[in-house]
Amino acid sequence: MSGLGIWNYLIIIFLMMTGLYMVISSSNLVKKLIGLNVFQTSVFFMYISFGYISGGAGPVFNENVELYSNPLTHVLILTAIVVGVATTAVGLALSIRIKESFGTIEEDDLHKMDSSL
């Protein structure tokens, strides 16, 4: 494995652990969504790293090329990006509605309100 590949996976692990920490440690709903997006981005980088082939060409037929990269990982990532944007939009919309209804987006305060009812 080359040095760049090791750095690539170290960055993926760092982003993954940072996103997980943000989700677990924060009680703010928007910060949790940001943590989920950071975690999701690390998964995107991981799939793109798996799909990379050194010296491989794009999946377009060319008589001079013998080694092609697999387009499946890139297609999956494009789909995941669209789903991630939609999920983030729904999460932010729900956060706005929660803020309008309860006056806060802090999870601890919402639990206190729920237990007092």
TrEMBL record:
<keyword id="KW-0812">Transmembrane</keyword>
<feature type="transmembrane region" description="Helical">
    <location>
        <begin position="75"/>
        <end position="96"/>
    </location>
</feature>
<protein>
    <recommendedName>
        <fullName>Na+/H+ antiporter subunit C</fullName>
    </recommendedName>
</protein>
<keyword id="KW-0472">Membrane</keyword>
<feature type="transmembrane region" description="Helical">
    <location>
        <begin position="6"/>
        <end position="24"/>
    </location>
</feature>
<dbReference type="Pfam" id="PF00420">
    <property type="entry name" value="Oxidored_q2"/>
</dbReference>
<feature type="transmembrane region" description="Helical">
    <location>
        <begin position="36"/>
        <end position="55"/>
    </location>
</feature>
<dbReference type="InterPro" id="IPR050601">
    <property type="entry name" value="CPA3_antiporter_subunitC"/>
</dbReference>
<dbReference type="InterPro" id="IPR039428">
    <property type="entry name" value="NUOK/Mnh_C1-like"/>
</dbReference>
<keyword id="KW-1003">Cell membrane</keyword>
<keyword id="KW-1133">Transmembrane helix</keyword>
<dbReference type="GO" id="GO:0005886">
    <property type="term" value="C:plasma membrane"/>
</dbReference>
